[in-house]
Every structure is written in structure tokens, then in C-alpha cells.
Design a protein that fits this description.
Elements (H helix, E strand, L loop, with lengths): L1 H21 L5 H5 L8 H15 L7 H16 L9 H11 L5 H7 L6 H17 L5 H13 L12 H13 L5 H8 L8 H14 L5 H10 L9 H12 L4 H8 L4 H9 L4 H15 L5 H7 L13 H6 L6 H18 L5 H6 L7 H14 L2 H13 L15 H13 L5 H9 L3 H10 L1 H11 L3 H8 L6 H13 L6 H9 L6 H15 L5 H13 L9 H16 L9
Helix pairs in contact: 3-5, 4-6, 5-7, 6-7, 7-9, 8-9, 9-11, 10-11, 11-13, 12-13, 12-15, 13-16, 13-32, 14-16, 16-19, 17-19, 19-21, 21-22, 21-23, 22-23, 23-25, 23-26, 23-28, 24-26, 26-28, 27-28, 28-30, 29-30, 29-31, 30-32, 31-32
């Protein structure tokens, strides 16, 4: 009896002691202790993964801090040991799931490339973890490795994915906004095309835009012409435009120099690719519009051809063309169109007199339509007064229009821009400009439904809350919402992120032109203040439409992505003439 009792007590004691030695299975420390034991290591990693899967999604779990303080240092200690090599991906994946910047020591080790496929994969996991945790301390190591791969691109060939590491490194440096990376990223953009795939150029361009250092301006202008790429919303050229837009106002002087044909480096690069200097200049003009700084207005006005502009007076173009200077009006149409378009997106009222002075230069839709849309975007009393004149006397040269029936198309389609330009107090004047027009013009305006936008002006007047309500009401017609967007934006203060976000959320309208304006207005209101919520709203619409892309929306997507680049970085050039 006594013997049996003693045996039972001994059994309980042994069991309890064994349980204590095993430790709490849900405590990280229990399994960290076993990582040095080769026989227990596999099970220890398995149990750590189990625990991490539960706490990675729970921001309140106290074990998150314990993971940073006890688990990550052990991972860093073991990472380089050969016998732990089979578990490296597990360590990297756990660190990534936890999004703790304290893993930077291990990630730095993972970035020390050994040329193996495993090392390549582990480096990619490390870069993802660095981005997820915003581990800024890793930037120095990434820059060093990126520089090595730029110099020896043959080492960046993991499983046939040429340039994958450089792409991810550039992308990571951009998200970290690592200023020390500007020089190496510029060097990457200056590489011959045979040295790296286009994805590396694209990632480096995006990164320079995110970092926003003016030192990158020249190479971002040059890369559009030094590296050939197929056109598209994600092309090298379009990414460079967005990056320059994100850098903003500091890019203006170099772009003005390029517009004036004085950027010899870019001109030489373009010549090597058989790109005319005029194309280079027009590219600079367009980018100035994307930046949206009124500091470019004076230079754009000077660049815009005006010798054939006389306001209400007719200019003897034939005499100009026969003069010693040999004025070329056909070329002037294109240059004026580019200039007017950019001045419209800058939105500076100082451009209105020059634009209005050229309204009768050609009666060609090529430049007249851009003048009209620019006046509409700028808005205000002076722009509206010019639009009134166009509504009363404007016409398209029948030789330039589809046929004589479309002589007054400029009026019935321009009525939209007149209403967008109109301050609320001018609603009655806008209505009169329509009512006193030719019968066929009024009939076309009625078909197009511009009266709905005019009704918004008449009902809301100076009430910003009224415009906001219409803007946010998806059941309203697209033109009603567009009119509301312009007036809501004009009544909002630059830097009002809440207002900018409301505009961005209204991006999904049925009309491509309205989308362009709403995306532009969102960035304009955000001004120099970053607005991640605005970018997310624009991205969500484009992502939802990814599989059903409408070619007519390409301009809207381009504008939205330009706006996103500015609002992500703070868009130092936005704000126009405010």
C-alpha cells in the first residue's frame, strides 16, 4: 500500500517536471531555446510559425514585442550558419508576416548575394519584408547591393527573371524614400539598354519620383529619349512624366530650358534616336502642365506662337508667311495646342489674356479647342468673359471641320466649358449666351444636356455644401457632378485633404473628360500636402476596371496616375495660381 502510494506520487512528480521542462507551448521563448538543438530545431521552427500565424494579425498581442526582442535576434544570429540554411525562408517569412523593422539585421544578411537561386529568392523575400515594415535602416545595404548589380548585371538572373533583384531593390528604395539612393538610381537610368531590362529603368524612375530629389530632374527628362519603349500608361516616358510631376516645382527651370530648346544634352540624345527637337520641346511643355506650377506660366506664354493672334482683329497670315521670318501657321497650331493645354492644367489666371487673344487665330479645332478647354479649367470672370465672346462669334473654319454643318460645333461643345468656367454669379449670363445663339446651336446644346450643369450653378450659387452633396451623389448625371467638382474645388482651400479626398472618390463618372478634370482637381486641392486617401480612391476605381478597360478612358487613367504620383509625394508643384 505504501509502496503503491509512493509510486503514484513519483509518477505525478516526473510528469509535472517533464511538463515544466517542456515549457508553455504558446510562449515564443519556449521554442527559441530549442533553435540551437539540431534535433529539436525543425519542430521549434514549426511551432514558431504556428504562433506567428496567430499573432501577426493581432496588433494587441503582447508577444509581438517579445518576437522583436527575443526571436529576431536569434534569427539574425543563426541566419548565416550552414546547418540552418534549410530554415532561412521560414525565418524570412515569419519576419515579413510580423512587419517588424527589428529584423533588419537578418534582412541585411539575406541581401548578401552568393549567386545561388536560393540566395536570389531569399533576397527577394528580404526586400518584401523591408518594404512591409518600412525598415529604413536597410537602405544602406540595399544601395550597396544595387550598385554592385548595376556594375555586374549578369549576377541578377534568378530563374530567368533578368533584373528581378534590381527591380525590387529600386522599388524598395523608392518606398523608403532613401535620399542616399538618388545617385545610384540616376546611374541605373544612364546605363545602356543592353545592360538592363526595361523593368529596372521603370522601377528606378518610380523611385526617383517617390524620393523627390531635384537632382534627378535632368536624367528623368533624358531617359524619355535615351531608352526606347512602347507607348502606354506604364511606359518609361509616362513614368518619367509622373516622376517629374511628383518632384514638382524644382523641376520647372530645367523643363523651361528644355522647352526653349536650350537643353543640349537632351537634344543630342534625342538626335541619336532620330527624335526631332520639337518633340522634345513639346514633351517639356506637357510636363510643365502636369507639374502645375504657375512659375512656368510666363515662359509658356512666351513659347506659345502668337504672331497670328489678333483678338477681335484679323491678322494677315499670308503676309506673315511671306515675311523674312517665314511664319509657319500649320506648325503654330500644334505648338499653340500644347501650350494652351498646359496652361489650362496649371490653372493660372495670368494666362487668360494670351489665350483669349489667340481665339480667332486659325478657327482650327486643333488649337482653338485647347484654348477653350484651358479657359474652362482656369475659370473666373476674365476666362468666362472670353468664353462669352467665343459663344457669340466663334466658329470652325469649314475647311478644317468635318463639313459646314459643324461650323458652330465650337459653340455647342464649348458651352460645356463656358459653364465650367463660370463663377456662380455668372449663371444668368451663361444662360443668356446660350439663349441668344443660333437655333441649331441651342438645339445641339439641348441634346448634349448642358442645361443640367447650368441648373447646378443656379441652385447652389455660393453654397459649397450644395456642390459637395451633388459631387458625392453617384445618381446624378456626370455633367452635374463635373460642375459641382469645379465649384467645390474652387471654394476649397489648397491643402484641404478632406476636400481633395471627396473629389477623388467622385472619380468614377461615366465621361472620360469629366474623370480627367476630377482627378486633376483632386491633386490641385491637395496642393503640397500628401493625400494617400486620395491616391487609394483613384487606384480602387482603376483596379476595379482593370479587366474591362475602355480605350476612351486612357487619358483619364494617365491623369489619375499623374495625380497619384503628386499626392503620394506631396506634389510640390500643384496649386497653380492659388
Amino acid at each position: 500500500m505504501i509502496h503503491s502510494l509512493f509510486a503514484a506520487v513519483l509518477a505525478v512528480t516526473v510528469t509535472t517536471t517533464a511538463a515544466c521542462n517542456q515549457g508553455d507551448p504558446n510562449a515564443l521563448e519556449t521554442h527559441v531555446k530549442k533553435l540551437d538543438d539540431a534535433e529539436a530545431r525543425a519542430e521549434a521552427f514549426k511551432q514558431l510559425e504556428r504562433i506567428v500565424s496567430g499573432i501577426a494579425t493581432d496588433p494587441e498581442d503582447t508577444r509581438r514585442q517579445e518576437f522583436a526582442e527575443k526571436v529576431l535576434p536569434k534569427f539574425e544570429e543563426l541566419y548565416s550558419e550552414d546547418e540552418v540554411a534549410p530554415y532561412r525562408e521560414q525565418m524570412l517569412n515569419m519576419a515579413m508576416a510580423m512587419k517588424r523593422p527589428e529584423a533588419v539585421g537578418m534582412w541585411n544578411k539575406a541581401l548578401e548575394l552568393d549567386g545561388s537561386a536560393e540566395g536570389h529568392k531569399q533576397a527577394l523575400l528580404a526586400l518584401q519584408g523591408i518594404r512591409e515594415s518600412k525598415a529604413e535602416a536597410a537602405a544602406e545595404t540595399i544601395i550597396a547591393q544595387f550598385t554592385k548589380l548595376t556594375e555586374s548585371p549578369g549576377k541578377d538572373m534568378g530563374e530567368g527573371q533578368e533584373g528581378a533583384l534590381r527591380y525590387e531593390m529600386a522599388r524598395t528604395l523608392g518606398e523608403l524614400k532613401a535620399k542616399a539612393a538618388v545617385g545610384p538610381l540616376i546611374t541605373a537610368l544612364e546605363q545602356p539598354e543592353e545592360n538592363q531590362p526595361k523593368v529596372v529603368y521603370k522601377a528606378a524612375i518610380d523611385a526617383l519620383g517617390q524620393i523627390g530629389d531635384p537632382e534627378a530632374v535632368s536624367v528623368l527628362i533624358s531617359v524619355q529619349f535615351s531608352v526606347a519603349d512602347a507607348p502606354g500608361t506604364q511606359s518609361i516616358g509616362e513614368r518619367a512624366v509622373r516622376a517629374l510631376g511628383a518632384i514638382g516645382e524644382p523641376a520647372v527651370p530645367k523643363l523651361v530650358e528644355t522647352m526653349e530648346g536650350k537643353n543640349t544634352k537632351v537634344n543630342e540624345l534625342a538626335a541619336e534616336k532620330d527624335v526631332p527637337v520639337q518633340v522634345v520641346q513639346q514633351s517639356a511643355v506637357r510636363i510643365l502642365g502636369v507639374i502645375g506650377s504657375s512659375k512656368a506660366t510666363e515662359a509658356l506664354i512666351a513659347y506659345m506662337p502668337q504672331k497670328d493672334c489678333g483678338g477681335d482683329e484679323e491678322v494677315d497670315v499670308a503676309a506673315l508667311e511671306e515675311s523674312e521670318e517665314g511664319f509657319d501657321q500649320s506648325a503654330a497650331v500644334g505648338l499653340r495646342a500644347f501650350s494652351a493645354n498646359s496652361m489650362g492644367f496649371i490653372g493660372d489666371p495670368a494666362a487668360v489674356p494670351a489665350l483669349c487673344h489667340c481665339r480667332n487665330a486659325t478657327h482650327n479645332p486643333g488649337d482653338l479647342w485647347e484654348i477653350i478647354s484651358a479657359l474652362g479649367r482656369i475659370g473666373g470672370d476674365e476666362a468666362f468673359a472670353c468664353m462669352e465672346k467665343i459663344m457669340a462669334t466663334g466658329f470652325y473654319d469649314p475647311e478644317e471641320a468635318v463639313n459646314s454643318d459643324f461650323k458652330y460645333q465650337v459653340r455647342w461643345e464649348g458651352a460645356r466649358w463656358m459653364i465650367l468656367a463660370a463663377p456662380p454669379a455668372k449663371a444668368a449670363a451663361a444662360k443668356a449666351a446660350i439663349d441668344t445663339n443660333e437655333a441649331n446651336v441651342k438645339a445641339e446644346i439641348e441634346k448634349l444636356g448642358w442645361a443640367t450643369g447650368l441648373a447646378v450653378l443656379e441652385s447652389c450659387k455660393e453654397d459649397v455644401a450644395c456642390y459637395e452633396k451633388i459631387l458625392m451623389d453617384s445618381s446624378k448625371g456626370w455633367f452635374e457632378r463635373e460642375v459641382a467638382a469645379f465649384n467645390f474645388a474652387r471654394m476649397s482651400k489648397p491643402g484641404d485633404i478632406e476636400a481633395a479626398a471627396k473629389l477623388a472618390k467622385a472619380f468614377k463618372t461615366r465621361d472620360p473628360e469629366a474623370r480627367i478634370n476630377i482627378a486633376w482637381l483632386s491633386a490641385r486641392v491637395a496642393g503640397t500636402t500628401p493625400c494617400p486617401e486620395c491616391s487609394d480612391a483613384l487606384e480602387s476605381v482603376m483596379s476595379a476596371e482593370e479587366l474591362t478597360k475602355d480605350a476612351n478612358m486612357q487619358g483619364a487613367w494617365l491623369t489619375a496616375r499623374q495625380a497619384m504620383a503628386k499626392m503620394t509625394s506631396g506634389g510640390s508643384g500643384s496649386g497653380g495660381g492659388e
